[in-house]
Amino acid sequence: MTEATGFEAKTIHRLLEVDPRGGGFKRGDDNPLECDLLVVDEASMVDVLLMQALMKAVPDRAAVLIVGDIDQLPSVGPGQVLADIISSGAVPVVRLTEVFRQAAKSQIIVSAHRINDGVIPDLRKPEADSDFYFVEANDPETAVGRIIELVKTRIPRRFGLDSIHDVQVLCPMNRGGVGARSLNIELQKALNPANDRKVERFGWTFAPGDKVMQIENDYDKEVYNGDIGYVTNVDPDEAELTASFDERLVTYGFGELDTLVPAYAATIHR
Fold this sequence. Notes:
By secondary structure, this protein is an alpha+beta fold. It is built from eight helices and eleven strands. The strands form four sheets. A five-stranded antiparallel sheet has the order 9-8-7-6-10.
């Protein structure tokens, strides 16, 4: 959003100035935001409690523009705020339905529209370069091998992407041979084999270079559920791990590593 608009963009938690000790927000009806227009993007991911806190902090003079897609997954927290706002009829709603020329070149977008219309996407091998490929596997063991080959070799070679920083594997669930947990173990072995500077805690191994995800809000460290970072150092003498989140270094004691998981693969909800 910052790159697209030229204005600083923040998560809602940071915008509302979350209070690490009390767990609430410093911004509210008694200390409103300083803005004339508030743009809320990815609104399908905002739950009831967070949207309530945000609306309380909007000054009376300000306008609010809510942007989102109700066909995306609902928020992890309670409620379906965006869908309910649209169906209420209480606010003006604009729906974008036309696929423009530039977007029409993306088979991801074309396939998404087909699925919304109840039509199976075109799964044939594309004749030219595409952003949508269907790779078939008849069993989990075959699928795991093909996923590793795609992430480690074929995608970097074809598109010039970095396997760890530029590629994200998504799974329907955590469990199973092609679930997020199993794939994280296999992808970690293939992409970043642990050396002597590693730590094993809470069922996971962490080493410098690993891609990790925060799975709980930590207001003291200012890292939140879903934030992705990269391990920069493991110090056994100090019993500390350091990870970089958006180029900001965050230090964890080894006993705090239950809030981190490998993030080579993640569930779609996560």
